[in-house]
Amino acid sequence: MPYRNAFSGNPLDRSGDLRNDLAWLGEQEANPEALAMVLWEGRPLVEPHEGRERLVWLSLAHGRDLVPDRDVFLGLWKGAPVFAVEFEGSIDPTAGPVGGMGRFVEMREAAAVLPEADAAIAGTAKSLFDWRRRHGFCAACGKATDQASGGWRRVCPACGVEHFPRVDPVVIMLPVFKGGDEPRCLLGRQAAWPKGRMSALAGFMEPGESIEEACAREVKEEAGLTVSDVAYHSSQPWPFPAQLMIGLIAEVTDDNAAPDQTELEAVTWLTRAEARAVLAGTHGSIHAPPPYAIARRLLETWAEG
To answer: Rounded CA gap, 75 and 139, in Å?
Structure first.
């Protein structure tokens, strides 16, 4: 792939068909080589390794001793079954059962400090546990559901309805205006962000929309601009809790941008030279999106021409 964003590049064979076989899944659980990564409320457990950090891996038996009945099957890694277990509650388990094994980090920090494969595996596990936490009851009849397929399916024993993890598609786009003396791109700012932080525009897709239509709607709603062309850049799994960021470059018809004061409190146009200064950290007032965000990749691609 020409672009690979944080939380992508998961090396596991998800075994999508095999995990539906209860007998096969039982064999994986009984495999003495089965491994388990550890999370606490969506935070992976990491340890130092060769100057950086990596995920902590335990045997599945050890993981289940620590966290009974709180595991999911993630896939196969070079033939070995890989699972994840998750602690719940407000008390950091490093003060107790996993003391001395490492530290728990927020998932955004994990994207910055972990190798690509580790971050992708951790993001997948977080999304699965977030879905499990929010879908313990059947949306059809309200009864409690049971885990199936190693955590990738929940079944209602009362009405038989099956529930599967869902991914929420989000368009994230860098508006570009080619008129005037030189091309410029638009960044926006939300009031809740750190001082100086600006980023690409983004919004959830709605039922019945194409990607291009969602892009045009969001740019019009947030900045008052009309989109004339849309080019796909790349995508990014975003485990907060389970989104797919669809990265786009959106050409607009004019530069009369105005923030809607609901989603965005400010917008600004940047030339390529100004965008490079933002990325280099030398711009006087604007800070770039963090390195693990697809918004930064969009800005980098456009700034490089």
So the answer is: 27
